[in-house]
Amino acid sequence: MLFMPAQISLYEEMSTLSTRMVEAARANDWDMLIELERAVAVLRDKLMSEDGNADLSDAEAERKSKLIQHILEDDAEIRRHTEPWMEHVRQFLGAGAKQRQVERAYGAQS
């Protein structure tokens, strides 16, 4: 079982990384965002593999709750920056696919 201070420490590290992810999203630094997301995933997997339902002191439970809330708020902020970009990419790729269909249908008649 993971000791509570270590568990809280992992949540704190995830919270710090999520703040850096917000900064990367705001800067449109997609490579850094992906790198940070991978680091968060490693920590998340580590937390999930341990007993997260062990008894917490009131202070530890409060700290854990606040850290999780912060991570969720950061996630929402990251999505505000990434979703418009992803929609643009979808439209770009969709337009390219339509153009290739038209070229296949009509472009071969040279």
Give an overview in words.
This protein is mostly helical. The protein has a single domain, classed as Up-down Bundle (Methane Monooxygenase Hydroxylase, Chain G, domain 1). It has helices at 4-26, 30-48, 58-107.
Which residue ranges are poorly predicted, with pLDDT under 50 across at least 5 consecutive positions? none
What is the N-to-C succession of helices and strands? HHH
- The global form is elongated
User: Regarding CATH, which class?
Assistant: Mainly Alpha
CATH topology-level name:
Methane Monooxygenase Hydroxylase, Chain G, domain 1
Strand residue content: under 5%
Briefly note the structural class of the backbone.
mainly alpha
User: Measured on Cα atoms, how large is the radius of gyration?
Assistant: 21 Å
CATH architecture: Up-down Bundle
The average pLDDT value, as a whole number, equals: 85
CATH superfamily membership: Flagellar protein flit
Q: How many distinct beta strands?
A: 0
Q: What proportion of the residues is helical, as a percent range? A: over 70%
Q: So how many helices?
A: 3
How many domains in all?
1
